Amino acid sequence: MMPGFVLFLISSLTLATVYALVALALNFEAGVDGLWDLGVVSFFAAGAYAYAILTVGPPDQMQVYRLGFGLPLWIGVIGAAGAGTLVAYLIGRASLHLKHVYYLITTFAFAEVIREVLTNERWLTNGTAGMYRMAQPFKSSFETNLYPLVLLLVMVAILVVVFIALNRVTKRPFGRALNALRENEDLAATAGMAPYRYHLRSAMIAGAVAGIAGACYVWFNTVIVPQQFTSSITFVAWTVIVVGGLGNNRGAVLGAFLLILTEDVLRLFDLSSTVAVRVASARVAVIGLILMAVLRWRPRGVLPEKRPRFSRSEALVPAEAPAQGLQQVGSGE
Amino acid sequence: MENFVFGIVTGSIILLGAVGFSMTLNSDHFVNVAHGQMLLLGAYLALYFSKLTGNFALGAIISVIMTGALGMLFYAAVYRPIKTKGPLILLFTSVGLSYFIWGIVGAVSGSQTQAYEIPAVRAIRVFGTPLITSYELTIILVAVIFAVSLHLFFAKTRQGKLIRAVADNHDLARIRGINPLRRALYVWFIASGMAAMSGIFLGMISSIDLELGWKQILIILSATVLGGLGSTYGVMFAAILIGLSMELGILILPSHYRSAIAFAIIIIVLLVRPEGLKSVVPALRGRPVESDMESL
To answer: Domain residues for A63?
Structure first.
């Protein structure tokens, strides 16, 4: 039997892995590409529910959902990635011709509509009562005591694979094209990059990754209810990548672990439930302060995006034109 | 009929929140997510001060003034210093500020749902059918008074014109000797005060809880988009329209979808006509400040 502290640490780290995956997804579309997406939770929720519906068994007497295929777990994960991609495609198809603030508001609105649908369509999701007894990977092969550690390792493995894959895509011509579109869409378009098609693809990649993160979230919780998919997930993911360093994958992962661990440290103390609620709120206030402070004094984040350096162009560009990360995304138009 | 009246009431509440939001958007050109939390702050300050003074109306007025003052403070301390860094930095700073306000309110008041201690009132009967309570009537009246007086303020008074001048062209206004900081502070005072009113009224017709600000900011965004970014009159009109469609929509759709209706409206409007209502109704267009909005 593992001591309480270790169990607690494992659970925190597992949650941080989920957030790191969502942050990586968001970082790809918002940091590498320049989409202001306030609805990344849509992909996350789609992935989680796709996984749940594909793998869960038939309902018991208390439940009202009609679907529950009881399929193997790996099909569930593929389904989760597929559902995330599909939702990203549909939302992107509809709203990618909008710019900046308009895009931001539309994606935000889509996320809320999706959550309302998940809450109300009980035949699909069992509503707010949720679905439970979710399948977890390799559950039967290990002892119950040891299982949290196994789950953490599985998720870290997924995180590593996703991280390497995204890093490679970022460095390939596709990723550089997204960078170019982010910096100056008109110029990139004249160089032959079709903005809409590239944006759609980057959103779909983000959708796939966030969908997988959704499946991981289900493993972590073993239950799924619509209340888990509020827009606060989106805001947390944005906080993570802004603090970690927009455009930098390592920053996204680091940010996720920092944020979840700062959040969870305070849970270690034994507090009565009324005090605990207040402490939880105060913690959010502290995170707000950190976010404001980072944006003010380190607007490019803790680990700023590395800009590629080309010796010839360096000579051409005057030295006093610094790359400004976030700032340039915003004011560069 | 009941739904229609309630739609107007809901619309009036949205109007008070959305007009303030739209004013800050026009004056500083960024999406101030923390505006939703100003509703929350106003609602809770009113709760606190009405308990303290034993008089709800007095508590509400104190709360409106205090929230307005805090709005000015937040602007001067948080947004103003980073104004040159672009709208995305400002947007996420406002997310940080939202967390901050939400966290402080939650830490002080706890997470339980609360209600104002105001006496229950009977609806006023018109031709024998109960139509509207005195609270609802007050809400509508306050919204109308504010809509009209804001119009007069911006159209007729010198200060109102100066504010519009700064919103139109910040640098030109400065060259002409207008102090932009002072105008911006007026804007933030009025906007935050109105946000407080909106929050208090929400509490009067139902109850207040910590999620109020997050829920409301999206509806405010819908009204702003539907009205067309940058058009104050368009936003007023859109607020009423959204209030009505939310309350009338539940006659057709299941009532759980009440707020989804507002969001579905934004999605449809943005997909069909991103310029919002002002592109359909020329009278709503107002002064052309859109050139700035395009760059957002």
So the answer is: 4-230
